[in-house]
Amino acid sequence: MELLANKMRPKSLKDIIGQEHLVGPNKILTNLIKNEKIFSMILYGAPGTGKTSLAEAIVNDVKKEYRMLNAVVNNKSDFDIVIEEAKMNGEMILIIDEIHRMNKDKQDILLPYIESGLIIIIGLTTSNPYHTINPAIRSRCQIFEVTPLSSLDIKKGLKRACKYLDNIKINDKVLDMIVASSSGDLRSAINLLEMAYYSTNDHVITKEVLLTINTKPVMYIDKNDTNYYDTISALQKSIRGSDVNASLYYLGVLLEAEDLDIIFRRLTVIAYEDIGLSNPGIGPKVMAAIEAVKLLGLPEGRIPLSTVVIEMALSPKSNSAITAIDNVLNEIRTGKISPVPKHLKTNSKDYKYPHNYKNYWVNQQYLPDTLKDKVFYYPKINNYENNLNKINKEMRSNK
Q1: Is the N or C terminus of the chain more exposed, i.e. has fewer CB atoms within 10 Å?
Q2: What is residue 185's predicted lDDT score, i.e. its pLDDT?
Q3: pTM exceeds cut of 0.70
Q4: Of the candidates 145, 168, 191, which is a domain's last residue?
Q5: Please, which pLDDT band fits residue 230 given cuts at 50, 70 and 90?
Q6: Residue 204: which domain range?
Q7: Are 248 and 302 within one domain?
Q8: How far is Cα of residue 375 from the mean position of the Cα atoms in its chain?
Q9: Which of 145, 178, 200 finishes a domain?
Q10: Residue 166 shares a structural domain with residue 271
Q11: How confident is the prediction for the chain on average, in pLDDT?
């Protein structure tokens, strides 16, 4: 039996739900179809946002011959067949699913025909094309983001789906539950509706029916996807901005996706990049929390992560360490590398051993001659760095 989500695939742009930035009045795809002109393009976005539906609606509206291949499943000979068809019949549209996984052999045979216009490709991908698609392909395509649908769009799609299900009984509150669980994925929402419909004898869909099928929202975090980078970015920026509630929210999003490696790596970076010397104890605390999560697993692992994220968000901030090392690297990369001073070289008799001096400090040059007055580290205003610099100045006062 064909799934309801497939039965409902739009036949034309006017049937598309959402994506007003592409298919609304006087928008790019609407105008291209109106002018009966289509160019190679890449549609990217999370699963269930309607990339395949949009591609099929485009080819239906332009009334051109098209074929659909998968970059992984279909082999090179399948692509050769499409090219031969295009040579015989003229301009052909080729929809390529998972285009980010297309290997070099397939790219090489397609490129000349994309260039000539004999083959027009519509690439579909859940990955960010700017990160994952070969520049040779990408440069020949317009890139359009297919965005997650709004709650109103999902609800509109569900109401349309209800018309396909005889004698269905469902109220607005239950529809809203399905919407809330979908995370902008219309296909997931329709699949849940259809499963709920066929799981009851009387086709009455209640909250209780839904909870027996689905207890958590659909989460989509993929390391090649824009959503992956956006969520990580939001977590770091929220902690950096000392917004404890936003920090916990984005931690929760990543926890629901159950991708602990993302969380571990990012919290470690934040500890040293954004908090740094204002609270140097936070680094070991993050590592301790990570070890606790590895020992406990989920769901208990959420507790040490929540604890350390709260402290990170509320902690004073300092980026003096990353700024200092970047200042050094910028200096080196511009070619300003000088010899080590003679008295610092191995076995030099002119080296003064600080431990032999009062306050463990002696006045001697450490930077190369060309950089001897260069300052790389600029302390931030916080108790820990203030104290370190106070101690350092007291040491240096012994000349």
Answers
A1: N
A2: 84
A3: no
A4: 145
A5: confident
A6: 151-213
A7: yes
A8: 37
A9: 145
A10: no
A11: 90
Round to whole Å and give the CA distance between 399 and 394.
Answer: 10
The CATH number assigned to the domain holding 157 equals: 1.10.8.60
Q: How far is CA 107 from CA 59, 72, 103, 120, 143, in A?
A: 22, 12, 6, 13, 17
Q: Round to whole Å and give the CA distance between 51 and 60.
A: 14
Sign of the torsion angle spanned by Cα atoms 279, 283, 286, 292: negative
What residue type is 268 in one-letter code?
A: T
Residue 331 lies in a domain: no
299 prior amide bond cis, ω within 30: yes
In a domain, 375, yes or no: yes
- How far is residue 162's CA from residue 329's CA, in Å, rounded to a whole number? 61
In terms of domains, do 85 and 124 share one? yes
Helix, strand, or coil (residue 89) = helix
Report the CATH number that the domain containing residue 261 is assigned in CATH: 1.20.272.10
Same domain? For 38 and 82 the reply is yes
Angle between helical axes of 76-89 and 104-116 (0-180°, round to 10): 10
pLDDT-derived band at 319 (thresholds 50, 70, 90) equals very high
Burial status of residue 84 (CB atoms within 10 A of its CB: 0-12, 13-18, 19 or more)? exposed
> HSE of 210 in the Cβ direction (CA atoms, 13 Å)?
23
Q: What is the token pair recorded at 289?
A: 């929390």
CA distances from 351 to 19, 201, 234, 363, 393 (A): 70, 89, 49, 11, 22
Within 8 A by CB and 6+ apart from 36, the residues are: 62
Rg (CA), the chain: 30
Residues 330-365: pLDDT tens digits?
A: 999 887 788 999 999 998 999 999 999 888 888 899
Domains contained in the chain, number: 4
Neighbour-count burial for 106-143, b at 16+ CB within 10 Å, e otherwise? bbeebeebbeeeebbbbbbbbbbbeebbeeebeebbee
pLDDT by residue (tens digit) across 188-213?
899 999 999 999 989 999 988 888 88
Helix locations, 51-150, DSSP H? 51-62, 76-89, 104-116, 129-132, 135-138
Per this entry, what is the length of the chain? 399
